[in-house]
Amino acid sequence: MTTQESFKKRVRARMVHTGERYAAARRVLLEQAQARRGTPRTRERVSEPELDDATVRAATGRDWDEWCDLLDRWPGRDTGHAAIAAHLLAEHGIDSWWAQSVTVGYERITGRRLPYQRSDGTFTATRSRTVPVPPEQLRALLLDAGARTDLLGGLPSELRSRPTSKAIRLAVEQGTVLISLDVTADGRTKVSVAHERLPQPDDLERWRYFWGEWLDALDRSAG
Question: What are the tens digits of pLDDT across the range 102-121?
Fold first, then answer.
């Protein structure tokens, strides 16, 4: 991969992570590169891991650069997420949770996995909001086919979970949606949406916007 291709990949990864347009994401990365000039060279990151270097070092004895250098030297680094995690668990003295966390961090830093991307290559769009709607009322609307279509702004959907399931799973035009309803201490409802199995980053942004707008509308209509 050329330097220019690598930079474009980092720009696209930042767009997915922040929601910025290409020009804005590119400008920020160029400014960051300029600020780093004159300092010791560090590993270029396609996207940032969820955990910072201090946290990882405190728990595992290595920071991200050290873990990435170690895995880059391992011949099996391109055999997939499960193989990397198993290697870390078996050979490097960390538990299964940290083996998974280090694997995901390595995949993000090296571009093997973008933000919101799962190990199978698909993306999951997530949104949540606490709204002043009783959970039983919202559940009843989501379980009724006609009411659900109106509630979702005309989006066609098919119920894929049992009516008694804690979370409601729907098949929509692209992927599946898991909607969880949890009562808060003040009697409102926290609505959590996970739209799974999206194939591309562009699909991720489209549906993150859709569900954000839906939660906004739900909040406004209940106010």
Answer: 999 998 888 888 777 787 87
Does this model's pTM top 0.85? My answer is no
pLDDT tens by residue, 131-172: 998 999 999 999 999 999 999 999 999 999 999 999 999 999
Give the DSSP letter string of the chain.
--HHHHHHHHHHHHHHHH---HHHHHHHHHHHHHHHTTS------SS--SS-HHHHHHHHS--HHHHHHHHHHSTTTTS-HHHHHHHHHHHS---HHHHHHHHHHHHHHHTSS-TTB-TTS-EEEEEEEEESS-HHHHHHHHHSHHHHHHHTTT---EE-S-TT-SSEEEE-SSSEEEEEEEE-TTS-EEEEEEEEEE-SHHHHHHHHHHHHHHHHHHHHHH-
